[in-house]
Automatic annotation (TrEMBL):
It is an enzyme of class 4 (lyase). Residues 131-332 form the Orn/DAP/Arg decarboxylase 2 C-terminal domain. Its cofactor is pyridoxal 5'-phosphate. Its EC number is 4.1.1.96. Keywords: Decarboxylase, Lyase, Pyridoxal phosphate, Spermidine biosynthesis. This is Carboxynorspermidine decarboxylase. PANTHER family: CARBOXYNORSPERMIDINE_CARBOXYSPERMIDINE DECARBOXYLASE, DIAMINOPIMELATE DECARBOXYLASE. SUPFAM superfamilies: Alanine racemase C-terminal domain-like (SSF50621), PLP-binding barrel (SSF51419). The gene is nspC. GO terms for molecular function: lyase activity. InterPro entries: Ala_racemase/Decarboxylase_C, De-COase2_C, Nsp_de-COase, PLP-binding_barrel.
Amino acid sequence: MRFTDLPTPCFIIDENRLVQNLAVLRDVARRSGAKILLAQKAFSMFSTYPLLREYLAGTTASGLFEARLGHEEFGGETHVYSPAYTPDEFHEILNYADHIVFNSFTQWKKYGNLARVAGKSCGLRLNPECSTQPDDHAIYDPCGPTSRLGITEANFQPDLLDGIEGFHFHTLCEQNADDLVRTVAAFEMRFGRYMEGMKWLNLGGGHHITRADYDVDALVNCIIYLRDKYKVQIYLEPGEAVVLNAGYLVSTVLETMKNRKDIAILDTSAACHMPDVLEMPYRPPVMRAGEPGCKAFDYLLTGRTCLAGDVIGEYSFDVPLMAGEQVVFEDMALYTMVKTNTFNGMPLPLIAVRRADGTDEVVRMFSYEDFKNRLS
């Protein structure tokens, strides 16, 4: 059974599933009064922005290009944070951002006056030093012992708060509301006394709000508590929660072989098309497949680059895989398109949308020129 008739490899975003997630986020915003922003670092498929802006208040950016994309293609509020700004980029960011968050008092002293004269709302990123990540997620722990992300209590300078309108902290990754509650307690213990006179508080991203077992009530209660206690606007900036389970990467089996295990070589690549598989590491779900040994036939799914470690993982299937069959990776909207690369001259997957009526529509195809234009 073919998942799509489009050429592979291809990313497909399912509009119906996207709307399901957006409806949950809009409900949270309505119940709590929070403003919810799209974290473009996870998902920047701007052809979907007209749909997303019906539900979300704006976008967050990690630098100039994302800020410009959010401003031009999404609208609403545009927030930007970077661990460090360059002078040239910062001057251009002033054309696009509404909120600018600084990672240190040094950055604030260097650029704060420029931002204030331009009418921007300025904030500081704080590090509540509350690690809630499991050990195998250390790469995503902003509260690690040597983290460069945010100002710790020891480095806080309350005499430099004039002109600061809000605080930002981001400590979570794919986590439930209980970890947010723990983080808020640490934030209040270290920085709560500086909230007087602030206008907003940004709780960052990593909230797995649209996951089936997420405690939405606990999140809403936490937001209301902070909103009422400090009389501030609360912001959330999820990325993954916006597109959770709403995307697919469809690939085709090119060849099967055996070397101690049965191996399937696909027309996609972990290294090029889903780098989180190697970085986190992350094991993507595969449609109609199971864990090794759960079904009759086990296969090691691999990419077609020359990298020996271009291996997606071992999965089991009801029937043997044959050349020409499709393998569909699920939950492939987040941190995929924004991270793809052309190592080995690998073509980038085309990008498509599955409309509400079930039809697949291509929104972007890539060519040799996209590979060549990234080089000198």
